[in-house]
């Protein structure tokens, strides 16, 4: 029996990994629309991430072959840096994340997407997705305890690890305020967490998953100032030592990004740091002025730049 234990344990681990990647994918689908079928090349190797540097090299993409979703998009996310995507609704922000996660493969002549210099079409999808953590706008929680929902990020996570991740995600104190603490049931048949709390569960889960690359989609809904501050703190923690690409709806949240990319109709129209873009006095500066004036005296009703 003891001899069986190792292989059975391994099988359990494989089942859990496959299951997890399916659930992660399902969550991402909710975030990123429907995928089309893509297949790994026969004998494709696994992606080995060392630095986690991302590069979009002259990417052109259309969903339907008629309308252009991305046109000549080139940028780099250097090792351990944070890049934020901003732009109006339909400007191509989610398409960039979808392509990096390989919901669609670029065809010949449509450019390349590289991680550590390796074309992502040439590696297995499973290894690519294992290297990427996703914090969606509206994470899906299981009808299970909070501990389970956080621990899902890492097979065999101990209670100490779960609590440390919840602490780093600014959620520990909130969890301890529930009568059943970490055993509190959440989801449809348990306590209903707020949008900001659910996002922090996803942040804690991703901390445990510990991927070198992050895709973040900021919630579009207005959050109260203290929740927004908590989430920002949690995200900054999560981003440390990783390369991240985030969709930002509220410009106030990306002042610390290493690079901000401004998209319009699928093209990059400006890029730089927050202060560089303000000095440029172009599209970003006018979006910023618009947002600042609309938030005067009503910070919880900041207008978001997607126009909702
Ligand atoms: P939002 O802020 O509203 O999420 P976005 O900047 O993320 O917008 P994308 O979702 O990347 O924009 O869309 C870019 C373009 O691609 C848009 O013109 C959109 O209509 C189109 N598009 C997006 N998804 C699909 C799809 N599944 N099929 C066809 N066209 C699509």
UniProtKB/TrEMBL annotation:
Protein family (similarity comment): Belongs to the ABC transporter superfamily. ABCB family. Heavy Metal importer (TC 3.A.1.210) subfamily.
Subcellular location: Membrane
Full-protein residues shown: 569 to 876 of 1124
Domain ABC transporter intervals: 54-290
Designated name of the protein: Uncharacterized protein
Region forming the signal peptide: none
